[in-house]
Specification:
Number of helices: 11
Low-confidence stretches: none
Shape: globular
Structural class: mainly alpha
Helix content: over 70%
Length: about 290
Amino acid sequence: MALFFTQILTGIQNGAVYASLAIALVLIFRTTGILNFAQGEMALFSTYLLWKFTDTGLTVWLAILITMAISFVGGALIERVVIRPVEHSSALVIVIVTIGLFLAINSIAQVIFGSGQRAVPTFYPHHIWRPGGVIISSDTLVLVGVLAVECVLLFLLLQRTKLGLAFRGVSGNADSSRLLGVPVGRILMVGWGLAAAVGALAGAMAIPTTAGLVPSSMQQILVFSFAAAAIGGFDSVFGAVVGGLIVGVADALTIGYVDALHGIDLVVPFGLILLVLLFRPAGLFGSTHVERV
């Protein structure tokens, strides 16, 4: 039983990271209908900035805040410069653009920061407790706490502010919002900027708990985050959180009990996506759209 509960806690810890990046995916999809395949690499570049700031002597908390602010501006610029010119193109063109953005950001990060392994410090002391043989890490407690605060702040922003009202209006019907005087272009920029900032926070949460920062650090995390968003529903922030926890726990239990097959953990997200698409294509908490013909 100790192994079971330890793996559950490990899954919750990893699920908090997947949920955070899945929220970034959902924020962009809700406003633009785009699946941003470059979200992980945007978070990767932000994490390299975080490493650079801490390496020059800034405290970790201050470095995270500065990184999130820079990421917000960078995400807004990406929407205006890269995405805006193709926003009315076919879905295939947009997918190709985001994949190209994925490759470009990864290459730029390697050119600027190198391809060697970097150590990103945590913003909290690391402790491990073993009550009854169950391993409880401070990583788990802090990451879940950060995710909870992040969700509360996003809820207040989206549900209790004029910006949130405009954001929800654009995600519901951009044309109608434009007729009512909502600056749709600016809202889309804010959506991408907000997603980039949330992704930066996900990178700051994830990388310090791994072996180190390398150019491929966020790629597997992105796969699991896509699975989380698909399970919860690509238009539901709450669904992204639930999906992230489901994927994290399922993956941890698989690793804990089926460790004989190398790479078996990658089967988990794709298997969960398949099951959800078979029985509930919109996701567990996604909206089902009905169109009259």
